[in-house]
C-alpha cells in the first residue's frame, strides 16, 4: 500500500509549487511523485498589442529572483525581429550584469533558499566554537569569518533568538531529522555563513545595479544596446563593480566552496546511491553570449548542447525545431487531435479540472498549470548541473578542472554528479567558473573603450516579423518567442527553466525532472519530508506561474502561453 | 489602530504646512506615548537593547548613527533619532506575516537586500518574521501550521504584508496555496481579517500591477481594492514600485512601531514620507531639464555621457511619486535615471497601460496606449489615472510640466 502525501506550499522558492508523493507503507520508498504549479498570471496575453521595444520590461516581471534574464531575453527577441545587433560595449555591460546576477543568484540560492535542507540550526547551538574553528580550517587555509570569537558570537546570537520564543523563519523546520548529517560544529559553520551571506549577497546585487540601475528588476537595457553608457565609461564605476565582485567571490572561495566540500563528504552516501539523480538527459541553450553571431553559431561562456542518457562521449547540438509541448497531464486541451505542438504553433485551451475531494491532485488527468515541454520527445533536465556536464563533455578545461578537482579531493567517481548532492555542488562550482571569468569581461570592456569605441547602442529600423532568443538563466534554459505584426506584439511566448524541470508527465507517462528525481527516494518519515524538499530545492525552482490566456470574462482568446 | 488624518493635498506646498515645529512636537508626543505603551506590554522578548547590541557586536554609538540614517530617510528631524532607536528596540515585538500571491518574489528579494538594518538584523533583532515563504525553513503542512499558530497567537496584533495581486477570476482558481488547495482569495481574506494592519508591498499588491495590465487575464486586483470589495475594513498602506524599495517597507514598519499608527497617506494609500515628492522634482538631472538640456535619442552618446535630462527618451518622472532619487537602490548604488534610462512610473496605478510605450515622451504628443485610449498629457490625470482626488492634483502637476516642457521644446531644443 502506498500513502499519498501533499507538500504545499514548497517554500524557499520563487512562486507557488505543490509536490505530491506516494510512499510505500512498508519500505517508505517514494513510488510516485507529481509536480504541480498552482498559480497563473497570463503574461503573454498581457504582452499582446504592446510596443515590441517594451516587452523586455514586461517580461522581466515574470520573475523577480532570476531578475534580468527575462529582461535580456525579451529585448533579444525584439532585436532579432528587428535584425539589430548590439555594440561590444553593450554586450560587455549585459554580460557583467549577467555574471553578477549569476553569482548573486547561486550563492543566495544556496544559503538562503537551500542550506536549511543541509544544516540543522538547532544542532548548531550545541557546537563548540573552538572545535568549529579547527574544522573550518580543515576545509580552507584561511576560512571566512572563522574564529572562536566569531563562532561564539553567532552561537550566542542564535541562542538568544531561539530563547526569545519568536523563531521567525526557523520555526517549524525539520530540526533533528536523522537525514541531517553534519556535526554541531559543521552546522554552526554553515549557520554562520547563512548569516554572513545575508550581507555578502548585497554586494553582488549592488554590483549588478551599477550598470543595471537597480536590482531586482534592472532598467538600463534597450533594444539595440544599453543606456548606462556613463557608468560603462567611468573607471570609478567599473572599479566599484570589480571590487564588489572580488569581495563576493572571496566569500565564494572561502565559505561557499568549503561548505560544499563539507556537504560533499558528509552526504556522499546519498550521492553515490544516486538519490535525486532523476532524468538522464541534460540540455543547455548556452550561457552568456560572447559575440553577435546568430544563436546557432554563437560562442558562449558555457556551451549549448544536449547529453542523452548520460552518455558523456557525445554532445549533441540543439535544434530549436525539436522542442514541443504536451498537455496530457496539464490543465489544457489541444484542438485538432494533436498531442504535441511546437511552441510556435502552440495552443492554450485552459481546462482546469480541480482537485479531488480530499484536496489531492487528479493525477490521472490534468494536474498542473505547467505544460510538459519535451526535446525530441524526451524529458530533459536543465540548470547548472546540465550546463556543467555539457561543458565538461564538450572539453571546457576550466569546467573539467573544477569538477575533477572536486571528485579527486573527496575521492568519488564521476557518477557522484548524478544526484541531488551533485546538482547542488555543480551550482557552486559554476559560480567559481563564472566569477573567474569576470576579470576577462572587465578587460574586454576597458580595452574596447581604450581603443576609442564609446558606442553602447546600434540604430535600427522597426519592422514586422518573428524573433526569438535562447540562452540560460541561472536555473537553466530560457527561451522567448515573439511575433511582431503591424508594429506591435501579435504573440509572445516563453519556455522557462522550471517549465522543463517542474513539468508534469507527458502523453507517454514520462515524468518531468523533479518527479523523476523523487521516485525511488527512501524516506525516514513522509510527514517530515526533508529528503523531498532537499531534492526539489536542488533544482532551484522558479515557478512564478504557468500561464494561459483568458479574457476578463473567462473566455479563451488566444493560443500561446508563458510559463514561469 | 488609527490612521492619522491626511494633512495636505498632493502638489501643494505641503512641506510648509506639514513640517512645522508644532506638528513635530505633536508627533513626538504621540511617539512617546506609543513607545511607552509598547514597552509596558508583556514583552515577547525581554532582552534589553543593550544586550541586543552586544550580541550584534555593535556599539551604541553605531546604533544611534544607524537610527539617525533611518530618521532622515523617514523625513523626520533629528529630534526623532532617539525615538527611532527606541522604536527599533520595541519593534522586536511586532510580528509580521508575509504572504505571496500573484507575485514574482521581486519584493521579497528587494527586502532581503535591504541595508541598515540588514536582513540578518531585520530577522534576528528587528521584527518577528513569522511567516515568509521565501525564507522559512518548513514546507507543506509544517509551514501551514506555522501560519495558523502565528495568526492565533498574534490575533489582531500582526502586520500582514502581501506581495502580488489577488486573482479573483474563475472563483479564485488561478492561485491555490497550501495542502487544502485554498485559493489566494481565501488566504488574503483570512490573513487580513486577523491583522492589525495591512501593507501592500510592490505595485502588484498595491494596485494589481502587471497581472492586472490589460486585458487582465485573471481579473487581478490590488489587495486594498480587494479587501474593500469584500467589505473587510482594515487599514492598508500601499507601497508601490516594481519592486518596492526595501527602505519604504522597513521605514513603514518602524513608523508603525514608533507612532502606533500607520503613516499619513496620499489619495493612493501611499505614505507621504516616501511618496510625497515627484521623481521629477527630486531628480538629479532636474537642472538639465530646467536648462533645456536633453538626451535627444539613444544615439546621443554625448547626452548620455553628460547625464542630461531623459524626458525626450520617455522618462515618466514628471508623472511618478516616489523617493527613488533620494534613497536610490542597492545601498545607493544607482537608480534607473542614474543609469540613463527614464523612469517608467512604476509606483503609479495602472502604469503598465497608462505610461507605455516606455520610450515615448509624455508631453507634446497624443497619449496613445496600444488599446486606443487617446489623450494628451493634459488629461492623463483624470482620464487615465482615475481616482478623482489625486487625479486632479497630478493633473495640475502634469499640466504645469507640460506647459513648461512645450516651451522648452519650442525654444531651447539642442540643435
Question: What's the short version?
Answer:
The complex is a heterodimer of chains A (564) and B (415). By secondary structure, chain A is of the alpha+beta class.
What does this structure look like?
- The complex is a heterodimer of chains A (564) and B (415).
- Chain A has 564 residues and is α+β, with helices and mostly antiparallel strands.
- Chain A has a single domain, classed as Orthogonal Bundle (Cytochrome-c3 Hydrogenase, chain B), CATH 1.10.645.10.
- Chain A has helices at residues 43-47, 55-60, 69-82, 88-114, 121-124, 129-139, 148-163, 184-212, 229-232, 235-266, 268-272, 384-393, 397-410, 420-450, 497-501, 513-518, 530-538, and strands at 2-7, 17-24, 30-37, 221-222, 225-226, 282-289, 300-307, 323-326, 332-333, 340-341, 349-350, 372-375, 465-473, 476-485, 488-495.
- In chain A, the strands form 6 sheets. Chain A has a 3-stranded antiparallel β-sheet. In chain A, strands 10-8-12 form a 3-stranded antiparallel β-sheet, with no helix packed on it.
- In chain A, strand 14 (476-485) and strand 15 (488-495) form a beta hairpin.
- In chain A, helix 6 packs across helix 7 (148-163), helix 6 (129-139) packs across helix 8 (184-212) and helix 13 (397-410) runs antiparallel to helix 14.
- Chain A is globular, with a radius of gyration of 23 Å.
- Chain B is α/β, with parallel strands linked by helices and 415 residues long.
- Chain B has 2 domains: 14-274, NADH:ubiquinone oxidoreductase-like, 20kDa subunit (Rossmann fold, 3-Layer(aba) Sandwich); 279-412, Cytochrome-c3 hydrogenase, C-terminal domain (Cytochrome-c3 Hydrogenase, Chain A, domain 2), CATH 4.10.480.10.
- Chain B is 43% helix and 9% strand.
- A 5-stranded parallel β-sheet of chain B has the order 2-1-3-7-9, with helices on both faces. A two-stranded antiparallel ribbon of chain B has the order 4-8.
- Chain B is globular and about 60 Å long.
- Chain B starts with 13 loop residues before the first helix and ends with a helix.
- Residues 1-18 and 364-415 of chain B have low confidence and may be disordered.
- The chains are: A alpha+beta (564), B alpha/beta (415).
- Chains A and B meet through helix 1, helix 4, helix 7, helix 8 and strand 5 of A and helix 3, helix 6, helix 7, strand 2 and helix 8 of B.
